[in-house]
Design goal:
Elements: H1 5-39, H2 54-76, H3 79-82, H4 87-99, H5 107-126, H6 136-143, H7 146-170, H8 175-204, H9 213-239, H10 242-264, H11 273-305, H12 316-321, H13 323-349
Length: 350
């Protein structure tokens, strides 16, 4: 495949974004741990002391840089190309989690990383070209189609159900609740980000789009979605293991974003069946890699608590819904918090 200049620009920006975002997961996690030690209140149970932790802000700035690169990438390339490349952020976070957070990466996790890379390459090779857009009004027309309005309405209803019903009951025992809210809102934010990015790109090219109310409407939607994502992502990161949150968030977010993009921007229009099939297969390979990373991480964590005994691996859904596994995780983190707190008290006494 011959890459267009816009597609190549989008790919490079997406890769840089993955590096920054993957690193930010680890830095923010470290900041959340420090804040919990100082205040005694974890972000997962409503604490906001992390806002006073410099390390958390460094992680946030790193994430913002990555998101800006991602934002610009959507202005140059289709979402079905840019979004799956976020798999590289999982590889970055998994490797750094092993080095910095001491969260061991199982040998099979390396295979998961390789699968993510292979799947991403397949997607890049068979990705569609960006459809030319001449005005933000054209994007607004796409966003108000019946099919996309139905999708958007379904997302809003599901988010309300998760926030007001499931989050209070099982948000701290089921990783799918917090990550589900982030992913659902994320699919809408990406569509708005692409619309806003395209508007700014056209404005820079001399076609002022800031005079249209649609541009500001997309900007407002981006702000609401991003704030919601950030809040629940912090809760997910503080409640569950980083190596669990990152892949599951990626899988759900990417799947929903591709669906939303195909509905709204009709990215697959004009592509042959072979290319579409290759993209789907590449995406499945990426999903397999992220799930493998998750599964091997759970096995490694379980064996660290149970000595040499290695249990038979339950189904993925069982592990996600079982709160017992997460209680082990909390015991591990609480122990580390206690050790850090004791160390700080000793330093103060000295």
């Amino acid at each position: 495949m011959v890459f267009s200049k816009d597609n190549m620009t989008g790919i490079i920006l997406a890769l840089l974004s993955s590096v920054f975002i993957g690193t930010s997961f680890i830095i923010k996690k470290k900041g959340l741990r420090r804040a919990a030690v100082v205040s005694g209140v974890r972000a997962g149970v409503g604490g906001y002391s992390y806002l006073l932790e410099p390390l958390w802000w460094i992680g946030m700035i790193t994430m913002i840089v990555g998101e800006i690169a991602n934002f610009v990438a959507y202005a140059f390339a289709p979402a079905v190309l840019v979004t799956p490349l976020g798999a590289l952020s999982i590889i970055v976070s998994a490797v750094l989690a092993q080095i910095i957070l001491k969260e061991k990466l199982h040998p099979l996790g390396v295979l998961g990383c390789v699968l993510c890379i292979i799947g991403s390459v397949v997607i890049v090779v068979h990705a569609p070209q960006e459809h030319p857009i001449s005005s933000v009004k054209e994007i607004w027309y796409m966003a108000t189609q019946k099919a996309f309005l139905l999708y958007m309405g379904s997302v809003i209803v599901l988010v309300f159900i998760l926030v007001f019903y499931f989050a209070p009951q099982c948000g701290h025992s089921n990783v799918l609740v917090f990550t589900g809210i982030c992913s659902l809102m994320g699919s809408l934010s990406v569509m708005s980000v692409k619309a806003l990015g395209t508007s700014l790109k056209l404005t820079v090219e001399g076609k002022n789009q800031l005079i249209y109310p649609e541009t500001w409407a997309f900007m407002f939607i981006v702000a609401v979605c991003v704030v919601t994502q950030m809040n629940y992502l912090n809760k997910a990161l503080d409640t569950f293991n980083t190596a669990v949150v990152s892949p599951i968030y990626y899988v759900m977010f990417t799947t929903l974003t591709i669906v939303a993009s195909v509905i709204m921007f009709k990215d697959w229009d004009g592509q042959n069946i072979g290319s579409i099939t290759s993209e789907i297969c590449g995406f499945i390979v990426v999903l397999s890699g992220t799930i493998l990373l998750h599964v091997t991480k759970d096995v490694e964590r379980s064996s660290s608590f149970r000595g040499n005994y290695t249990p038979t691996s339950p189904s993925l859904s069982t592990r996600l819904c079982n709160s017992n596994g997460e209680s082990h995780k909390h015991e591990e983190e609480d122990e580390s918090y206690s050790e850090e707190a004791d160390s700080r008290r000793q330093d103060l006494q000295v």
